[in-house]
Amino acid sequence: MNIALRLANREDMKTLFSLRNAIEVRRYFFNPAKVSWDEHQKWFLNSLELASRQLLLAEIDSKVLGVFRFDLEGEFAEIDIYLAPEMMGKGLGINFLEVSIQWGKEHLSALKYIFAKVLKENRASRKMFEKFGFALRDETDTYFLYEFNLTERVL
Ligand SMILES: CC(C)(COP(=O)(O)OP(=O)(O)OC[C@H]1O[C@@H](n2cnc3c(N)ncnc32)[C@H](O)[C@@H]1OP(=O)(O)O)[C@@H](O)C(=O)NCCC(=O)NCCS
To answer: Residue 134 in contact with residue 153, Cβ under 8 Å?
Structure first.
């Protein structure tokens, strides 16, 4: 399986709009409401401008696999990952996570610690992060906070 990973660009705006609004994707978002085209456009164009944000798009055999986001602050990054609905349920998330973190290691020189906030009911996501080696660092009533230390792991 060959995952092609690249930075998102303006031409991906519509693709991300339909993916982000798919019920299978947004049901585990902290805000699960649909977004309007205007809201999406603002968010997406701003995301491309932000130096602290990296939006990655992955494809397998020219079909969209999913979207990965790094939000950087010094040596920390919060991440978000989602797959296109038709790619879910095949165990591909963990491979996508791996190539994205590898990308982060190669392109984000300050990066040491990666965090992911996962809603407690999001079992597939929890399983994926735990299997990959993320450690549970904290929890609230609604979510778990997972951490991955890049300096302690050879990818
Ligand atoms: C989270 C996500 C990336 C995982 O994708 P995936 O690799 O297709 O996930 P899978 O369905 O293959 O499940 C991963 C693991 O969780 C297990 N799992 C899936 N649903 C489960 C459930 N309801 N209860 C328990 N385990 C479950 C699978 O059996 C699999 O386990 P395995 O690795 O031992 O085989 C994908 O579901 C997604 O994009 N979800 C929507 C967005 C999202 O939740 N993103 C994460 C935000 S933090």
So the answer is: no
Mutation to probe ligand 1, out of 80, 123, 127 (largest number of atoms < 8 A from CB): 127
- pLDDT tens track for 25-44: 999 999 999 999 999 999 99
Q: Ligand 1 pocket: which residues have CB below 6 Å?
A: 25, 28, 80-83, 88-94, 116, 118, 122-125, 127-128, 131
Q: Given this model, what pLDDT does residue 1 score?
A: 75
Instruction: Give residue 20's pLDDT.
Output: 96
**Confidence grade of residue 147 (pLDDT, cut at 50, 70, 90):** very high
This prediction has a pTM of: 0.96
User: What's the CATH fold of domain 3-149?
Assistant: Aminopeptidase (3.40.630)
What is the C-alpha to C-alpha distance for residues 23 and 125, in angstroms, rounded to an integer? Answer: 16
Q: Are 39 and 84 in contact (CB under 8 A)?
A: no
Q: Give the closest residue (by CA) to ligand 1 atom 12.
A: 91
State the Cα angle at 83 between 80 and 88, rounded to 5°: 135
